[in-house]
Design brief:
Blueprint (H helix, E strand, L loop, with lengths): L2 H26 L4 H5 L1 H33 L8 H13 L2 H12 L3 H11 L1 H13 L3 H9 L4 H31 L12 H10 L2 H29 L2 H8 L1
Helix pairs in contact: 1-11, 3-6, 3-7, 3-9, 4-7, 5-6, 7-9, 8-9, 9-11, 10-11
Main location: membrane
Family: Belongs to the binding-protein-dependent transport system permease family. CysTW subfamily.
Subcellular location: Cell membrane
């Protein structure tokens, strides 16, 4: 295990420890009373939050992975600079600004929040798809061609399996990013746990604030762990070790 990986693990588990301590502090101070006394509302907001994350992430996956594959084909290489910089520019725009722009186009509601989250989560998946495919040794591709493989066979048997670790890492990043950003959906009437977070801020009520913020944090951690487990199962061990070197 290299130094970068060790540092990453230490930082991640340190953050997990802080969250657990904060969670214990919140329980001790009875800040979760709102969650239990208004359990139906909490479950509704949680459902809305999960819908926002799931739908926007699936849409980003459907668009970003094929776009990353296409841009790595020789006939589309010239467009890589334009597409990559356009996606990068979209990522630099603050999430609130994206939401404000979507309001002016689509109005207020669930669809507006979905579209804004979709735009904001394109970059990690697209960038990692391109990086994963570009990292494959050209000699491996040439060997596949020499064996008589057609382009689509090379893509599905050589490129995508070898790029799977990078692509899945991009998906994980996008989904976890969406879980946090989805809290802002409240601003455009999209619902979600952000309703309690912003209510707590407006009323200076720690109960509402923490009852919304802690579930979002725990959800992000659980999804991150789940997707890391998926990576371990799906990605061949040898491929993963090679990419981490």
């Amino acid at each position: 295990m290299n130094t970068k990986k060790v540092v990453s693990n230490v930082v991640r588990y340190f953050v997990y420890a802080l969250v657990i301590l904060f969670f214990a502090w919140a329980i001790k101070n009875q800040y979760f009373d709102y969650m239990f006394s208004q359990s139906k509302t909490f479950l509704l907001l949680l459902k809305q939050h999960l819908q926002l994350v799931f739908v926007s992430s699936i849409l980003a996956l459907i668009v970003a992975v094929p776009a990353g594959i296409l841009i790595t084909r020789k006939q589309f290489r010239r467009a890589e600079w334009i597409v990559s910089n356009t996606v990068n520019f979209g990522q630099t725009i603050p999430s609130l600004a994206v939401l404000a722009l979507m309001i002016s186009i689509l109005g207020i509601g669930f669809k507006t929040a979905i579209f804004a989250l979709f735009i904001y989560s394109l970059l990690p998946i697209y960038r990692n798809t391109v990086a994963g495919i570009d990292s494959i040794d050209e000699n491996l591709i040439d060997a596949a061609r020499g064996m008589g493989m057609k382009p689509y066979q090379i893509l599905f048997r050589i490129e995508l399996p070898n790029a799977a670790y990078s692509i899945l890492a991009g998906i994980r990043t996008a989904v976890v990013l969406n879980i946090g950003t989805a809290a802002l959906a409240y601003v455009v009437g999209g619902g979600g746990l952000g309703v309690w977070i912003f209510t707590g801020i407006q009323l200076f009520d720690n109960g509402y604030l923490i009852s919304g913020a802690i579930p979002v944090t725990i959800l992000a951690i659980l999804v991150d762990l789940l997707l890391r487990l998926v990576e371990r199962i799906v990605v061949p061990k040898g491929t993963k070790q090679t990419l981490e070197m």
